[in-house]
Design a protein that fits this description.
The complex is a heterodimer of chains A (690) and B (222). With 690 residues, chain A is mostly helical. Chain A has helices at residues 2-12, 14-22, 35-55, 65-75, 79-107, 115-137, 142-155, 162-170, 177-209, 219-242, 252-275, 277-285, 294-319, 344-352, 355-376, 380-410, 412-432, 444-448, 451-462, 494-500, 503-506, 522-528, 530-533, 537-549, 557-562, 564-578, 600-608, 644-654, 670-686; strands at residues 25-26, 292-293, 629-630, 636-638. In chain A, the strands form two sheets. Chain A has a two-stranded antiparallel ribbon. Chain A has a two-stranded antiparallel ribbon with strand order 3-4. Chain B is of the alpha+beta class and 222 residues long. Classes of the chains: A mainly alpha (690), B alpha+beta (222).
């Protein structure tokens, strides 16, 4: 064994490298405050490992990126954890980088001869933010797409070269396949290569110059660090206090307690350092203990710190998880568009400042001052300036981040948009698991072909100016115009049919009460007449359920099957009672066709042309002919307003015909009907209440 | 260094002088197996007349430059891509828009090529269409002229009807111009060209284009 090691060492010098790595001299002994660099190295290693593994599952193109991420997250065991660790480690990296930066500035570890190392560190921060920005887009979901739309538009506003820069970044004039291939090349190739290069240089220079000499690391340096921490946290606490009412009720204990504890700890630490000021300073001036090596004391501290970071990452993966919103769709206005949290302060700056000022001038000035810190900090007063500047920038960051989040939490519009985004995200997952799965054109077609998604949207746009659905416009928004036609929730259901066969409900605005059809309605006259009112209640019920059975609604399938004989009898009654004015199963003439009343075919035909003689005929009030309109000579007068496909979405949605995963038991009895009834109910409840 | 011969800037004589030191240092360690950098010590780099140095550098520059130039031309290709001039898309029929009614949101659906894929009926974006008079339809792109989020049409009790961007709170009057409380957008909503002849036939067709965000002028991007 020893011979083998010798043989290798002769050819590689591995012993010397190991020795130099592990037995780096740490004057003054191991300290907790030296752990930041190691935790960052650890985080970067995690990112490289998980990143390469994610790479094995990722496919960068506009119709496969979302699909591949979805597949990894939903179908591959542990895939959600892999993606979660990569996502949350990137969040932690930003925090650790900032802490590392604060530590370096407070210790004055940027002064000569360490300027270059400080700048490499800043470059690493920049590269990491670039990785965050590019990584945000890669899933090609709504969240990433719209955030990147804004980010690339900002890039396009870069003075002088903006237009070219944007074109190069997104690979053309518009976002598409090449935006993904480029962002992916940046995220997985260019930026990681830069990161490795910078880290090698950073660690090389760090090792070359050693840990910042002891003279700087006096008790006063420690005090500076905790003062900075205390001021920043204090500012954050004030901000939290000012915005207290804006925090969601449930989050308040956490929001109050966690920063409170951290601030108190900072305060205690500062007090402690002042109480022991004298003895600590004496300690400083005592001769240093002899060389202490990196191994094992500092390594142990570093390892513990890394374990704490990892625990934090895993906690967030477990508790919060990683979102995947609906596939990117430029035609779907995604009002919940927001960047990642560490860009939220910049996002908020753009509300208060002009695009150039907020996105270039202010961040540019901050970056320039930080860049010059090694020179500014040469004198003691300059060092103090740097500390104050850092507190102001961090405080500003906290301020704007909180402003942005509190605005969103208190904005009903934003919460509704987030709710809609979550509904789409949840729905697409259900559809992707349907037997048909995701087609080669991509998952986006699933939502575009889904009645539950498209029906309400089309209804809101085309029907809601007269109709309503359960009192709202289909999308959960209150109706804008006065109700002038029926509320179509549960059309052709048993409740609906019973309502039709009741003079009071029939004349209610939720039925025909708000239309001209009610004026001199023969139907209303019939319902009020003795012929109808003398009918036994049981027979009316039978007529109602058999009329409803014509629709063959999914939610009533079980009920209809159970009441088969009653429905048979009811049909007889319908033939007797209604065929004087209606067509029913080959009998009667005129009036609304009751054969297949409310069935898919019936409803589609109705929407296509309500003034057809099968329906309202000439008595049609204001309902548009949504299908193609023909003149009396049979010539096309006007093409269709809605395609049959679009009408189909509305009808299928009204009829409750959309894909739902079976709940495991395909019994076809009362339970399944109950099941789909509750899903309809859930859908209604999850609509935002305004 | 792209596309430019790197040796243009490097005079011959100082180069050989500069290498002189290396040559000497290398010479001393010649024959030692543990030479740290055999390339620097290699005799063929530094010995010989300036012409050979020149050729070495020129050749070295060329073999680096050739693939770089080819690669850069490809990577920079988006800069040379032509603008499509907009895509014609049908929104709806004229009859479907009420004269003086509220603006209706429409998805712009048309065929479109994206790199290697040609899509049929691809939703490209969102627009708001309003019929202002019998034969006049105004169509706004929903893409916010501030930073490109999608604007919403809102009709709130106190505020009245307006367009609102949910990102940075730009707001616009219903005629598309900047609202008094707008702070961010520098121009009003971008109007899209409505095809006149189709309007005569009772159909609303538009030329769908995108414009650069963030600036006061309406500048076509694609």
């Amino acid at each position: 064994m020893k011979n083998l090691l010798n043989w290798i060492d002769d050819r590689t010098g591995i012993r010397r490298i190991t020795r130099e790595t592990l037995f780096e001299n740490i004057p003054g002994g191991a300290r907790w405050r030296y752990v930041w660099g190691s935790t960052l190295t650890f985080a970067i290693m995690v990112q490289f490992i998980t990143g390469i593994m994610l790479w094995m599952f990722y496919s960068p193109s506009a119709n496969s990126a979302w699909e591949s991420v979805h597949h990894l997250q939903e179908n591959v065991k542990g895939g959600d954890w892999l993606r979660g660790i990569h996502h949350w480690t990137s969040q932690f990296m930003i925090v650790l980088l900032v802490l590392h930066l604060v530590q370096v500035v407070v210790d004055g570890a940027y002064t000569a001869p360490r300027e270059f190392n400080f700048w490499f560190g800043l470059a690493l921060l920049g590269v990491t933010m670039g990785l965050g920005l590019t990584g945000y887009l890669l899933p090609w979901d709504q969240k990433g797409y719209w955030a990147t739309e804004v980010a690339t538009n900002i890039v396009g506003n870069t003075p002088l070269i903006g237009d070219y820069l944007k074109q190069l970044l997104i690979g053309g004039n518009e976002a598409g396949h090449h935006t993904l291939t480029r962002f992916f090349a940046l995220h997985a190739g260019v930026l990681p290569a830069l990161l490795i290069g910078l880290i090698v240089l950073h660690i090389y220079l760090f090792r070359k110059h050693g840990i910042t000499p002891a003279a700087r690391k006096t008790a006063s340096s420690a005090r500076h660090f905790w003062w900075v921490a205390l001021f920043t946290m204090g500012f954050a606490m004030v901000m939290v206090g000012v915005n207290w009412n804006a925090f969601p009720e449930g989050a308040r204990p956490m929001v109050g307690i966690v920063p409170g504890i951290i601030t108190s700890l900072c305060l205690l630490r500062v007090i402690y350092l002042y109480v022991r000021k004298k003895s600590l300073e004496e300690d400083d001036s005592r001769p240093r203990p002899g060389d202490v090596y990196f191994w094992p004391d500092q390594v142990l501290r570093d390892a513990i710190a890394c374990a704490v970071v990892l625990a934090g990452i895993l906690f967030f993966v477990w508790q919060v998880g990683t979102e995947l919103s609906a596939p990117a769709d430029p035609s779907e206005n995604y009002s919940a568009a927001r960047p990642d949290w560490y860009f939220m302060a910049l996002f908020a700056l753009l509300k208060d400042f002009d695009l150039i000022t907020g996105a270039f001038v202010i961040p540019g000035i901050v970056a320039a001052v930080v860049f010059l810190m090694p020179f500014i900090g040469r004198k003691r007063i300059g060092h103090m300036f740097n500390l104050v500047f850092l507190v102001v920038v961090l405080g500003g960051f906290v301020h704007y981040t909180l402003v942005a989040f509190t605005h969103d939490w208190t904005s009903a519009g934003h919460q509704a948009a987030v709710g809609a985004a979550h509904r789409d995200a949840a729905r697409i997952k259900v559809l992707a698991k349907s037997p048909d799965g995701i087609p080669p054109e991509g998952a986006i077609t699933l939502l575009r072909n889904d009645p539950l998604t498209q029906g309400p949207r089309l209804f809101a746009q085309n029907c809601a100016s007269c109709h309503s659905y359960d009192g709202h416009d289909g999308m959960g928004n209150p109706r804008k115009n006065e109700q002038s036609a029926a509320d179509l929730k549960g059309f052709a259901s048993r409740e609906w049919s019973a309502g039709v066969l009741d003079a009071e409900t029939f004349a209610h605005p939720d039925f025909l009460g708000a239309t001209k059809l009610i004026d001199g309605s023969k139907m209303l006259k019939y319902l009020k007449s003795d012929i109808f009112t003398d009918l036994p209640a049981e027979e009316i019920h039978q007529m109602a359920i058999s009329l409803s059975a014509e629709a063959g609604l999914k939610s009533q399938r079980a009920l209809d099957a159970a009441d088969k004989s009653l429905i048979e009898e009811g049909r007889e009654l319908l033939s007797i009672e209604c065929t004087e004015c209606h067509v029913y199963r080959g009998e009667g003439e005129g009036g609304i066709d009751l054969t297949g009343y409310g069935s898919r075919e019936w409803q589609v035909a109705f929407v296509r042309d309500p003034s057809h003689k099968r329906f309202y005929g000439k008595r049609n009030d204001r309902m548009s002919v949504f299908g193609p309109k023909y003149g009396e000579d049979g010539e096309l007068e006007r093409p269709a307003q809605l395609t049959d496909r679009e009408i189909g979405f509305i009808v299928d949605w009204l009829r409750g015909e959309w894909y739902e995963p079976s709940a495991g038991h395909e019994s076809g009895d009362g339970t399944s009907a109950e099941g789909s009834a509750t899903t309809v109910e859930n859908q209604k409840e999850s609509l935002p209440a305004e | 260094m792209a596309g430019k011969d790197p040796d243009d800037d490097i005079p011959d004589v100082p180069m050989s002088e500069a290498l002189q030191g290396v040559q000497n240092a290398g010479g001393e360690e010649n024959g030692n197996e543990e030479t740290e950098d055999p390339v620097e010590a290699s005799p063929c780099m530094s010995k010989g007349p300036p012409r050979r140095e020149f050729v070495s550098i020129a050749l070295g520059g060329a073999i680096v430059a050739a693939p770089t130039v080819v690669g850069l031309r490809v990577v920079l290709s988006p800069l040379f891509s032509s603008r499509s001039g907009g895509i014609l898309a049908r929104l709806t029929t004229l009859e479907n828009l009420e004269v003086g009614g509220v603006p209706q949101a429409f998805k712009v659906i048309a065929d479109k090529s994206d790199a290697w894929t040609t899509y049929k009926d691809l939703p490209l974006g969102l627009v708001y269409a309003q019929r202002v008079s019998d034969k006049e339809v105004v169509v706004f792109s929903a893409s916010c002229p501030h930073a490109g989020c999608a604007v919403e049409y809102r009709d709130e009790g106190s505020r009245g009807a307006h367009y609102y961007c949910p990102c940075h709170e730009s707001s616009f009057k219903t005629d598309g111009s900047l609202a008094p409380d707008n702070t961010q957008a520098k121009r009003g909503l971008d109007t899209l060209e409505v095809v006149e002849e189709k309007l005569g036939e009772g159909e609303v067709w538009i030329r769908f284009q995108k414009f650069k965000a963030g600036i006061p002028e309406k500048k076509v991007v694609s």
